Amino acid sequence: MEEKYFVLDLPSRLIPYENVKQVEARLLRGKDEKLIGEMTVQNFESKFVLLLRQILRGVDPEELTIGDRFFILTWIAINSYSKIYPVQGICDLCFRNIKVDVDLGQLEKVYLDVQYKEPYELKLTDQSIVKLKQFRVKDQVRYLDYVSRKQEENIIYKLALSLADDRDLAEKIAFLENLSTQDLGLIRAFHDKYFHGVKMEYEYKCPECGGAGTMPVPFRLDIIFPDGSVIARSLGRSI
Fold first, then answer.
1. What is the percent of the chain with per-residue pLDDT over 90, rounded to a whole number?
2. Rounded distance, CA 58 to CA 11, Å?
3. Residue ranges in the chain whose pLDDT is less than 70
4. Distance CA 145, CA 147 (A)
């Protein structure tokens, strides 16, 4: 039986991709769960790329922006498992510990500015130009591999991965290390301004005091592989 594919309305609007007209995905099947079952916090990025290669067409999964990747993650969770994502937090009003069933479908989808072009030319404080790009999945995999090996975060290394020129990584790192902190701030501001994807905040009603508030929605592996009881609740079924 031919598998059905769905056209994805990606937050990037496909602007950062060359020669990509449409991206499609199919729903997960039992044959995909072996790969999902192998996912850990340490290997999630690389394993998720393998999963996307199985279910996605129209774009190389490693070339996806981080914003698009996370949107696809939530799309998979909603359509293949459950839109319910249980989260624990503290009420903004009564300060009690509460459990909230986040509806993933209600999270705000943030689109990339339609005027965005890549590479993006950013003018530094000395009027020189640096060319930048959105972080890609392959950049995230490379950076997390670095963090795993070095056991430390390195913002310079990470920002170097977003420089869109022909210099090798060592040269890019050396360039950034000699920039002023103001110029580094401008590069970080570029990434903030052109954020796109899913805004991981949820407006809730407190089950204890009845008040309304907003809580951050943390990423956990069970967002893509929820407990069976969560799926049953989402389907309105009692097992």
1. 80
2. 15
3. 1, 226-239
4. 5
